[in-house]
Structures are given as structure tokens and as C-alpha cells.
Amino acid sequence: MPQAGYGQFCPVAMAAEVLCTRWTLLILRELVAGTRRFNDLRRGVPRMSPALLSQRLKELEAAGVVRRVPAPGERAAFEYELTPAGLEVGPIVEAVGAWGQRWVDPELSLQHLDAQLLMWDMRRNLDLSPMPQRRSVIQFQYPEQPPGLRSWWLVVAPGEPVDLCGVDPGFDVDLYVACDLRTMTAVWMGVDSLRVALAQERLRVVGDRALASQMQTWLGLSPFARQQKLAS
Question: Which of 212, 86, 211 has its CA nearest to residue 136?
Fold first, then answer.
């Protein structure tokens, strides 16, 4: 871990030296959410450099919070998993997120829009139960974003992990969803309503009627969205 610390024996100070370096809680957020591969971790912290991510993972390994293990069925490939100590961090990460949802002004949160993080978060929380037993492709379009961040595809196939693509995967699209990134982020975070956004035509859906009618079900909400807002 970094040499500079708080110089206090207090367990709060000692835990902060492990958990509170820049980006560390966000890496732990990803691991708690089930992310295991280095490249997938990068998708959850897209503004973090690969070198710094590697450094933080090594620090967490040294602290006994994370361990690197061989990837099942792949030679020379590794994954990261939480140790028993790391698993105990899960409720802490969730409590920090719940506090932020309750007490941080949503207008401040919505000043930090990130299409890649939003789509990655949506992808791993998708509710597959209402999806048809066939491949479904949903394209999200954010027209005001730069070209490389404007279009995203979720590919849902029975028995397979949901795939998030930033380039056209080449499949026919079943449902198109178009809105500005702020609206989609606000809906996902529970500070806006899908129903209201559709009624006000800030969000448009075109394509498969069943997918469109069940969008709120399969899209779901951020794990923190149901926290009651207390910030004024």
C-alpha cells in the first residue's frame, strides 16, 4: 500500500489506508458486482488508466482483499476475486452507494455523465425474465454524444451472458431506444421516470412491441435507485 498514511492506530484510519486511495472503492464496487476480468474492470472504470488499475489491484492483493486466480478453462489467463476480507467490504460499498443516493444532490450527480459506465451498469443489472427465448438486440442511441459514444447494443441470448457492444455487432435490431444521455441516466438512477420521459417524448422506442411494453421490467433500475432522496 502507499507509504504515506494517517499515522494512527485507529481501525478507521487503518481501514481508510486500504480502501480510500483514489479509485479503490470503485474497483471494489466492480468486484462486488461480480466483475472478474481485468478488461471488464476497465469497462467499469473507463476513466482510469490500465497502469493505475493494475497498481491498485496489486495493492489490494497485498492487503489481502483481492486475489488473482487462474481463469477456468483458459491457459495463461487470470481473474480477480474477493477474499473473505474482501467479501466483508461488500456491505460497506453498498452502504456508501446508498448514502450517496440519499444525500448527494441528483443535479450534481447528473453533471458527471458517462455513457460507457451507464451502459455497463445497465448491462449487468438487466432482468432477463421477460426476454423472449431467442436472441434480442436492443440499440441505445444518444444523438448528442460524440460518434464513438453515440450508439450501444445490448445482445441478449438465452443461456449466455448479456453482451454490450460499442460497435455494431451485425445483428438485426429488435428495439431502438433513443434519448439524450442525461435522461437515460436519470431514469436509471430513479430520479426520472421512464413513463414520463416517454410521455414527454424525451425518450423514444421503436421496434418490437413486447420488448417496448416491458422495457421498465427488463431495464430495471440502478441497485441504489430505490433509496429515498433526502438531499434538498
Answer: 211
Whether the pLDDT of residue 2 is over 50: the answer is no
Three-state secondary-structure class, residue 151 = strand
The three cell numbers locating residue 48:
482510469
pLDDT tens-digit series, residues 167-200: 999 999 999 999 999 999 999 999 999 999 999 9
| Torsion sign over Cα 161, 165, 170, 172 | positive
Q: How far apart are CA 44 and CA 125, in angstroms?
A: 13
Distance (Å, whole) CA 153 – CA 175? 10
The segment with the largest mean pLDDT, out of 1-5, 13-17, 172-176, is 172-176
* Cα angle: 75, vertex 80, 85; to 5 degrees: 140
Cβ(44)–Cβ(117) under 8 Å? Answer: yes
Q: Which residues make beta-bridge pairs with 163? A: 155
Question: At 81, is the secondary structure helix, strand, or coil?
Answer: strand
63 touches 82 (CB < 8 A): no
Q: Which helix (H) or strand (E) holds 176?
A: strand 175-179
pLDDT given for residue 1 in this prediction: 44
Q: How many CA atoms lie within 13 A of 40 on its CB side?
A: 20
